[in-house]
Specification:
six-stranded mixed sheet, elongated, disordered N terminus, alpha+beta, three-stranded antiparallel sheet, single chain
């Protein structure tokens, strides 16, 4: 008896399989699936490499019911999974779809054959109907289907390898035509995806704006040195947990979809992280060469807030003449490094969030897609707040309005990400490389700029412990997102199962 692969939805980050690349799910506009009947209309065809012997075809109920109670399917064995083989099998596939079909019920086996049509009959008493595929005599298989197979996906890919549960994606696929001969149209959820991306940016910005009075009140009532150390500790916890819990971990799964060898995956992952770590330093060096610091620069009237000046003065009192206060105003090139690192890291993170939001609306149910949007807001707010605190802190000294403008501008990349993923197919491996690069930049900010404030000699041991508490709070706010934060990523051309984290 053939053992079918389990298809339970993956929601635990510990059990994540390799992720699929982001590739938009095609939906047929105005297709009620009632007109594909007797002449074997072909709505979709795809060619797959099948080096193993056992696979399984899966159809699921979507929103409580199967899209259609049956679906015609032809499976033709071919010598290789190339575009030429797909084109060469078209005539045989069309002829097979015209033949009288063999009825297959749940658990019946699909055997690839050049002249056989199968009528897959879905079991309405089950949420998922599966059909084993015997590929022992096929190096590759061309499938011709009456419907798009992705229309029968709720949370599991339609074709899997039995031995590992790995998603099998088409090397090449084509959409067909409806019964009237008109080309199938692709419906893309532009309004919902862009609306969600705009909402993410506005809600996050509003949260920061409403937090400003609390921050100002804290600065006036408490020791500014301690307050800024607490803010820096919170920022370190939020930014570093964002790097480790989201960016770097997510990137490992996505990068693995592009390269089979572990060595190829690891060196790319590590190189992108190291590049992210060193890039802000390179920017500081280049800016310093282009605009060397001058003696009068520090004495010039920079746009400092009263709180920043008070903080610097209080911090400087705690140091000897030969010490450098960790709260002292940075020179221009150092400021450029910090601002660049904040902006670029935030831009890349928001861009990838936009990828996931766009992919969610393109290939997931609305409830899952909006869940992705809410999860994005929950982890964006503490991260953006930490960025704001660094930018307005004594070392950078941006005004409140300037820092808000920077936050808003970098946040727009979530909209750009949604647009890109709806307009193009973005490989998961590319997204993974971007995430690893952004994670490296966040490590630079968290470890180099924020963490040293926690061990400031001006702080008493008790206050250092309080700063550690703020660090933990920042980390927890990001970590809570992992409890039920899903990224539903539609099917692509070279990868594996979707994931949640």
């Amino acid at each position: 008896a053939t053992t079918l692969v389990a298809t339970t939805r993956v929601v635990s980050s510990a059990d994540l399989p390799l992720s699929r690349p982001i590739n938009l799910l095609r939906r047929v506009e105005g297709d009620d699936h009632g007109g594909h009947g007797e002449h074997g209309d072909i709505e979709w065809k795809g060619i797959f490499e099948t080096p193993e012997s056992s696979y399984v075809w899966i159809a699921q109920k979507v929103d409580g019911s199967y899209v259609d109670p049956t679906m015609k399917l032809a499976a033709l064995p071919v010598g290789a999974a190339t575009d030429e083989d797909l084109e060469g099998a078209e005539e045989d596939g069309e002829e097979a779809m015209e033949k009288e079909c063999t009825v297959l019920n749940h658990g019946d086996t699909i055997v690839p054959s050049a002249d056989t049509c199968y009528l897959l009959t879905f079991d309405d008493s089950r949420w998922e109907t599966t059909f084993p595929i015997d590929a022992s005599n096929a190096e590759a298989i061309v499938f011709f289907a009456q419907h798009l197979p992705t229309e029968f996906e709720e949370d599991t890919h339609y074709l899997k390898l039995v031995s590992s549960g790995e998603d099998i994606e088409p090397v090449h696929q084509e959409m067909g035509h409806d019964e009237g001969g008109e080309e199938v149209k692709v419906v893309k959820p532009w309004g919902k995806a862009i609306g969600a991306a705009v909402l993410i940016n506005l809600v996050t910005l509003s949260g920061i704006v409403f937090s400003i009075p609390l921050i100002s009140k804290a600065l006036k009532k408490a020791d500014p040195v301690f307050v800024y150390a607490g803010f820096a500790s919170f920022a370190a916890g939020a930014i570093l947990s964002c790097a480790f819990f989201l960016l770097l971990f997510e990137s490992t799964h996505l990068i693995a979809t592009g390269w089979e060898e572990e060595t190829d995956q690891i060196w790319r992952w590590g190189t992108m992280i190291l590049a992210g770590l060193i890039l802000p330093v390179l920017v500081e060096a280049l800016v310093g060469i282009a605009k060397p610091p001058v003696e009068s620069e520090e004495s010039k009237a920079n746009t400092k807030t009263k709180d920043v000046e008070v903080a610097e003065a209080a911090a400087d009192k705690s140091f000897e003449d030969d010490d450098v206060s960790p709260f002292a105003k940075k020179n221009f090139s150092e400021q450029a490094r910090i601002i660049f690192a904040i902006c670029f890291g935030d831009f890349m993170h928001n861009l990838c969030d936009g990828f996931f939001v766009g992919a969610g609306f393109a290939g997931c149910s609305d409830s899952v897609a909006w869940g992705i949007a809410i999860g994005t807001i929950l982890h964006e707010f503490p991260q953006e707040l930490s960025d704001f605190l660094i930018l307005t802190g004594p070392q950078v000294g941006l005004s409140t309005m300037a820092a808000l403008a920077v936050n808003f501008a970098t946040g727009l990349s979530v909209i750009l990400g949604a647009v890109i993923v709806l307009a193009n197919d973005v490989a998961s491996s590319t997204t993974g490389l971007l995430l690893a690069f952004g994670g490296g930049i966040y490590l630079q900010i968290g470890c180099v700029e924020c963490m040293p404030k926690m061990v400031n000699p001006a702080l008493s041991p008790k206050r250092k412990l309080i700063c550690m508490f703020f660090f933990i709070v920042g980390a927890i706010l990001i970590g809570l997102v992992l409890l039920d934060h899903e990224h539903c990523i539609p099917e692509g051309d070279d990868s594996h199962a979707g994931h949640g984290h």
